[in-house]
Design a protein that fits this description.
By secondary structure, the chain is mainly α. It has one domain. Helices cover 65% and strands 0% of the residues. The chain contains 4 helices and no strands. About 7% of the residues have low confidence.
């Protein structure tokens, strides 16, 4: 009647199975950076010819990349914020998110430098020890 014990719990890391958190944070950090730089690039391209920006191929390419972020921000922001201001709000949210995820990544890596995605923090720690 007794079940065989699953040994998968024994094969987890000493950190409660969170050995890939740092790598996931690096991926999230990179996605935030790509979206933020795309919004910035879209704004810069739009400044050169504001009236005909929607006809510009590069602007349209940036628009494809940033549309999911801008749509999500439009969904969560109140209607008081005008539609033309939503990309700016999205950029600011990405900017704060970029630094927030970066600090979170640092904290996770400093707890266990052997995780995947913590090589730069391990190198910095080794360089500081010399």
């Amino acid at each position: 009647m007794g079940r065989a014990r699953d040994n998968s719990a024994d094969s987890r890391s000493a950190h409660g199975g969170y050995e890939k958190v740092a790598l996931l944070l690096v991926i999230l950090h990179t996605l935030i950076m790509v979206a933020g730089l795309s919004l910035l690039g879209q704004g810069i391209v739009g400044v050169f010819n504001w009236r005909r920006r929607h006809e510009n191929f590069v602007y349209q390419l940036f628009s494809i990349i940033t549309k999911p972020v801008v749509s999500f921000v439009r969904l969560i922001t109140p209607r008081v914020i005008l539609d033309q201001h939503v990309p700016l709000v999205a950029f600011m949210m990405l900017l704060f998110g970029y630094f927030g995820v970066g600090l979170w990544h640092r904290d996770v890596c400093l707890q266990d430098l052997s995780q995947a995605g913590c090589a730069k923090w391990a190198a910095a720690r080794a360089g500081a020890a010399q």
